[in-house]
Amino acid sequence: MSAMIREFSPRLSTKPDIWRQIGIAERGPKLYQALHQGFAYQVFDKLAALSTLDKKQLAAVCQLAPATLARRAKSGRFTQDESDRLYRFATVFAAASSLFGGDSAAIRSWLTQPVYGLGDQAPIEMLATSAESQAVLDLIGRLEHGVFS
């Protein structure tokens, strides 16, 4: 009996990851610099399109008043705090996208519907603080690994 050994060659994904699609680094010095400088307004547009949320809904989730959003569109850049809130949403969206294999309808439904594991709150309603966002990310991690308690 002979064994055949083949060289491992990882498959490259043809679909760009969410971070590249929205135009920011997922982590590291480039992300930190972008957060300190404030994200470009296009990040908001790309996040809205990618998440299939309308801009008003995304603005509400990220605590951006309509007048503030209009000023940021004009100036072309968000503040550091606003960028952090956008990043918080992007992180949860990326994790949910991974959980649901990129299925837009499933991602949107899960983000916007009450979830038992979050005290019957919708994940999208739990992004106001980093602690709440971390609870959503923790739940996604547990679901990915089949830990339901």
Automatic annotation (TrEMBL):
InterPro entries tied to this protein: Antitox_Xre (IPR011979), Xre-like_HTH (IPR046847), Xre/MbcA/ParS-like_toxin-bd (IPR024467)
Domain Antitoxin Xre-like helix-turn-helix: 31-90
Annotated ranges, domain Antitoxin Xre/MbcA/ParS-like toxin-binding: 96-146
Record-linked Pfam families: Xre-like-HTH (PF20432), Xre_MbcA_ParS_C (PF09722)
Protein name per Swiss-Prot or TrEMBL: DUF2384 domain-containing protein
Lineage: Bacteria, Pseudomonadati, Pseudomonadota, Gammaproteobacteria, Alkalimonas
